[in-house]
Amino acid sequence: MISWPVARAAAREKLRSPAILAIGLCFAAAAALGGRAGAPREAFGGFGIPFLVVLTLALGAGLLAGELESGHAQLVLLRPITRAAWVGGRLAGAGIALAAIVVAAWLAAAGGAALRGGEALSLSAFAVVPLAVLWGFAWLSVLAAIGAVLPGWTNAAALVLAAIAWATLRGTLPAALGHPEWTAWLAELSNYLGPQDPLQLAFRPREGLGAALYDLSWVFFAWLVAVLLFNRRELARRRA
Amino acid sequence: MTGGQPTATSNTTATPALEVTGLRKVYPSRKGGQVVAVDGLTFQVRPGEVVGLLGPNGAGKTTAMQLALSLLDPDAGEARLFGQHPELLQVRRRVGYAPDAPLFPRKLTGLQLLALHAELLGFPRRDARQRAERFAEQVGFADPARRPAGTYSRGEAQRLGLALALLGDPDLVLLDEPTAGLDPAGVAAMRELLVSLRARGAAVLLNSHLLSEVERVCDRVLFLKEGRLLRTHEVRAGGRRVEVRLVNPAQIAGPLAQAIPGGTLEGDRFRVPVASEDAVPALVRQLVAAGAGILEVRLAGAELEQLYLQIVEGRA
């Protein structure tokens, strides 16, 4: 399911991208400066989300299409490797890059908080890191599935547009149609239109566990959809 | 030499390294119509054979290669590598492909890319790195290989593409314009490489616009136009021709006709058919003995060029 040589190469490539490094640096700097004294875990969980969203979008933009459009995917897929393993490898590589940056940001948050007299680093406080990575990885797999059919970085743009469209619809539809009771129903539906937030596991274990399991299955199914869509594609660039 | 054949086959009985039968590919055009890129293409490449694809731009040469490798889905016909479907993993292990104008991930170095492909071919990580360094050196790419691929010139990218194609010691190599962007030393190295591939029994399908190179290394040439195979030409069977530019053609016309009766003199050019390039030094000695002042000696090229113009361009 995963080609590890492809994953390592993808992680290396992502971690050398100036845009991704810049986002990572901002993330770590904000984490170091913004962590509340005594509570690096909560502080990271709070302000980390916007950075995590931007980072995930940057890592997932053109995750498959970039390689396909350059023609390098043709060469890789002429090796004895399945398309499923290649998709898995690209996804895992982006996930490794995401994890590396999240760990760095968390260390910066915890370090900053400790310097200001907060609590010392503890293993339980570290739990927020794999949860944040899982959430980002689940969204990365969504981006991979969209990217199996869309060109360039438009997979990230399409996801952002879909999120904005849904938020607008959710906010306006019940009032516009005179059904305010739909608001709660649409809010509930929202929970199932994409990965859920497993970070709450660090604070509310029962709800968080469900979200984490939901995200794990989301990763698998999004990867499966990405492979099914990608299997239908021709690899060569058309010339006519 | 053979001519006028709609298909190209060889009479040996070994399983062809590459066999395409009735391939057809139609692209939608930008103007809303259709473009037939490849139309009923049938040919074979056997182990130890170097076959050239010749034709004008848009003749379908690159599409034919991509169809053969299953990088494109044919609308009709099929391609088989070593008698099997091109997408089988055990088949892919035996194939190398160097595309025209390859692009690579900009942030990875040539060595990292070579090591990645070596690992994909099944070499353990440590061996993959060693193999990467060896192949980078083999194609004259050792120094640039340490730089990120985003900094490569066209020629450097071409060399990396070539190293990637040869990395697994393939039994079938498809090279799409491999000399484009290469300096003269690179072109000469490429020629030697093709000869060595043939010597170890690999099959090669070569797409190149350099007619002289094609004539020097290919056993057979396929002329394509508008997606169709117009004709095949057995280069080896037809022998070669040497063209000599003379300083004193008028003075030595008589002695030349006596010494080398198979040659023809037109203006200051003396043309002689030869069995192989091994015969060239002896021929030059004969010319000098006959009193010829030699300005230039060229092997081949002209014959294939004439054939190309005749077959593909329809010129007399």
Write the layout of secondary structure elements.
The complex is a heterodimer of chains A (about 240) and B (about 325).
Chain A: H1 4-15, H2 18-34, H3 40-60, H4 65-70, H5 72-76, H6 83-115, H7 128-147, H8 154-176, H9 182-190, H10 205-231
Helix pairs in contact in A: 1-6, 2-3, 2-6, 3-6, 3-7, 6-7, 6-10, 7-8, 7-10, 8-9
Chain B: E1 18-28, E2 34-45, E3 50-54, H1 61-68, E4 76-81, H2 89-92, E5 95-98, H3 110-120, H4 125-138, H5 154-166, E6 172-176, H6 184-199, E7 203-207, H7 211-217, E8 220-225, E9 228-234, H8 235-238, E10 240-246, H9 249-259, E11 264-266, E12 269-274, H10 280-289, E13 294-299, H11 302-311
Helix pairs in contact in B: 3-4
Which tags fit this structure?
heterodimer; A: 240 residues; mainly alpha; globular; B: 316 residues; alpha/beta; six-stranded mixed β-sheet; four-stranded antiparallel β-sheet; 11 helices; 13 strands; 34% helix; disordered N terminus
Describe this structure in words.
The complex is a heterodimer of chains A (240) and B (316). Chain A has 240 residues and is an all-alpha fold. Chain A is 72% helix and 0% strand. Chain A has ten helices and no strands. Chain A has helices spanning 4-15, 18-34, 40-60, 65-70, 72-76, 83-115, 128-147, 154-176, 182-190, 205-231. In chain A, helix 1 packs across helix 6 (83-115) and helix 2 (18-34) runs antiparallel to helix 3. Chain B is α/β, with parallel strands linked by helices and 316 residues long. In chain B, 34% of the residues lie in helices and 26% in strands. Chain B contains eleven helices and 13 strands. Chain B has helices at 61-68, 89-92, 110-120, 125-138, 154-166, 184-199, 211-217, 235-238, 249-259, 280-289, 302-311, and strands at residues 18-28, 34-45, 50-54, 76-81, 95-98, 172-176, 203-207, 220-225, 228-234, 240-246, 264-266, 269-274, 294-299. In chain B, a hairpin with a 5-residue loop joins strand 1 (18-28) and strand 2 (34-45). Residues 1-12 of chain B have low confidence and may be disordered. Chain A binds chain B through residues 3, 5-6, 8-9, 12-13, 16-17, 67, 70-72, 74-76, 78-82, 234-236, 238-240, and chain B through 27-29, 35, 37, 62-63, 66, 69, 71-73, 89-90, 92-93, 95, 97, 99, 102-105, 107-108, 112-113, 116-117, 119-122, 148, 161, 164, 168.
